[in-house]
Amino acid sequence: MAIKATARRAQTQAPASVSEDSWIEIDGLDKEYRPRKSAPTQALSDINLTVRRGEFISVVGPSGCGKTTLLKILAGLSPKSGGAVRIAGRDVTKPLPEVGMVFQAPTLLPWRTIFDNVMVPAEIQRLDPRRHRERAQQLLEMVGLNGFEQKYPHELSGGMQQRAGICRALVHDPAVLLMDEPFGALDAMTREYMNVELLRIWQESNQTIVLVTHSIPEAVFLSDRVVVLSPRPGRIAEVLDIDLERPRDLGVMSSDRAGVYVERIRRHFNAAGVID
Amino acid sequence: MATSNLVREPAQPPAPSARPARPARRKFDLREKPQLWLVPTVFVVVVLAWEYGVQLIGVDEYVLPLPSSVVESLWQQLGDDQFWGHFWVTTQEALLGFVIGVGAALLLGTFISQIKIVEATLMPYIVAFQTVPKVALAPLFVVWFGFGLTSKVVMAAVISFFPMLVNVIEGLRAADADKIQMLTVFGASKTQIFRMVRLPSALPFIFAGLDIGIVFAILGAVVGEFIGAKEGLGYLLLQTNYNFDIAGMFAVLVVLSVMGLVAHFVIRLLQKRLAFWAEDTKVIGA
Predict the structure, then answer these.
(1) How deeply is A163 buried, as exposed, middle or buried, from its count of CB atoms within 10 A (0-12, 13-18, 19+)?
(2) Hey, what's the signal peptide range on this chain (chain B) (predicted)?
């Protein structure tokens, strides 16, 4: 089932000058926290990254390296200290309607049904209710939540809630999907299952995805490229092209090449003296 | 729909607190819910001990009446039109006062919690007023508003106002930062955040405020009637007292308790309907 992703493209379409090769542009990004009473800390330093449209990018790095900060800046939740960040040609200074986000916790509203939770972004942005109800229904079917539309969040398992969270992030057909350790709270089995599921959703909806994760194998399995950040202040230590055939299944992770990628990323962590 | 060859995760059985557990709750299972027989048993034991203890020790009727005389007096009262007149007066005073007090608290609480400078300016006064024992104002209200309905409504309103106000302010602050951040990412305005997260998050607190407020409103009306009135259950309470009709006093007390209980259950019922997701949320008792 292919989700009709083109319907609203005209609206989210960037200025004509934006090339699909630089769908997300991060240019000399700095982030400094300046608490009032203590010395400022440099969280991110000179981050340069360009993401193609439709690309799947993962960001990994030791704890406290600023991966979540980077994502919050992309989401327009946190101001940057220097440099430029553009999504689809627009400067990110506040949350953009072109962006969808999946959080560490499902963060569903307990007083809304699953269906009404998925509709939240469409409601906020006052998008055509009829078309987006249809889209919400399609998305829920795509993640296997049909039949659960009228249930309340507490009636679903953690994995199902997180899938509803993914539907919510996609309902307004965002140009970019940001994911902040979305599977961190799930058990290993559910997590692997969700990884496969996410790849399927990505292939069907053709979003540009930036995923922050703690798990190196997860990053390798999912991504076109993996961005490795160094410990604080976060700099880009390496950007690794993951040259594994698509579509992928979990079997690909036992291949030698995947093992080499995982090892190579892990070495960065070991060199930093941090076991994540 | 594209099928994945992985087995779909089965829907987990809902948590014990989940709604589908309803049918089981209706069952009178005495082993699982011993309170179903313990509560009535305690009642019967206490009443019997009272009835026969009073007779055994020989306490005077005008100090502590027998439960049987209380029931007798209550029966007599319920058949009396005058009694129902008193009942409706107090009900009216309490309900009007409740609606005014709680409504004002809702408005002011929303205003205070949403605008920082208003909060900073008004909070010291609110704290100061809160420490004033409100019932002590009753004589003043009678002087200001007379012996009629108004003074009692004002008393009921003032006394139910503060617990509601505290709950509204606290409730509107109780919204999860995560949920607010989620709405912000999707571009929500302040008004949308208020409507979609802050208000629903405050509902359990608001119901706690209503629950206390209604009981306080009845208290306020009765206290107002003590100070100066020609009708109402508070007035009736004083009359029975002057006449040494202690059994009659107890009968009025029973009626007042039942009023409070009914109001409490109505509010609980509304809460279960409207704030169904948060039956166990801890709220301030004020």
Answers:
(1) buried
(2) none
- My answer on whether A116 and A158 are in the same domain is yes
- Sorted by sequence, the CB contacts under 8 Å of residue B285 that are 6+ apart come out as B208, B212
Q: How many domains does chain B have?
A: 1
Residues 15..54 of B with a Cβ closer than 8 Å to A: which? 15, 17-20
Contacts of A196 in chain B (CB under 8 A): 4, 6
Average pLDDT over residues A38-56: 89
pTM over 0.80: no
Is B187 in Cβ contact with A125 (below 8 Å)? Answer: yes
Q: At what angle do helices B149-173 and B138-145 cross, to 10 degrees?
A: 130
Mutation site, B1, B185, B192, B280, interface A, largest A CB count within 10 A = B185
Question: Least CB-CB distance to A111: which of B12, B185, B277?
Answer: B277
Taking only the tens place, the pLDDT of each residue in A3-18 is 544 444 444 444 556 6
Residue of A nearest to B6 (CA): A193
Q: Is the residue at A10 inside a domain?
A: no
* Within a domain: B232: yes
Q: State yes or no: pLDDT of B282 exceeds 80.
A: no
Q: What confidence tens digit (pLDDT) does each residue in B195-238 have?
A: 999 999 999 999 999 999 999 999 999 999 999 888 999 999 99
ipTM: 0.84
Looking at residue A273, what is its pLDDT?
A: 65
Q: Which residues of A touch B15 (CB under 8 A)?
A: 154
Q: Give me the mean pLDDT over the B99-113 stretch.
A: 95
CB contact under 8 A, B277 and A110: yes
**Do A112 and A165 fall within a single domain?**
yes
Instruction: Count CB pairs under 8 A between chains A and B.
Output: 88
End position of a domain, from candidates A122, A149, A173: A173
Q: Which of A123, A139, A173 is the last residue of a domain?
A: A173
Check if A106 contacts B (Cβ < 8 Å): no
